[in-house]
What does this fold into?
Amino acid sequence: MKWRCGWVLLPVLLLAGCGALQSVEPGGTTTPVVEESRGDDAAKVLAYYAQVRQLAGQELAREQEGARRALAKTRSDANRLRYALLLTLPGAAATEEPRVQELLEPVTRSNDAALRGLALMMMASMQEQRRLETHAQGLQQKLDALLTLERNMTRDGSGTRKR
It folds into this structure.
């Protein structure tokens, strides 16, 4: 479960620099890829994540409750992302993934490019994490089956080890 933080943090940090990106058009002029006013919300969400990523136990639970209340009061994309980030932190219940997807879905359809990109990255990270966990579970089952087979092969019918 420690991977969950890394899978969300890496793309989130990479997106933080996207507000400064510019594309070069023919003729040498530059145009912003992401408008700065829209990137401001993304920067705030990223700064928030940097502050809360170390929370655990009661502090994390209080912050999650505060974010849930803020979302209930104002259903903004930024509030959705803040709450979703809190639910993906280490120490949060692993069963929150459906709730996180529910929170991120409207943001992925949003017109705010910076927050939409951040939400899409979070969704992709969660899907990759789920794929890796499923793969790890399959490998563990195979290992357990091999260990059982080995135990059975080293014992005779009476339950004593062969020598």
The beta strands are 22-24, 30-32. Residues 4 and 90 are 7 Å apart (CA to CA). Residues 113-153 form the longest helix (41 residues).
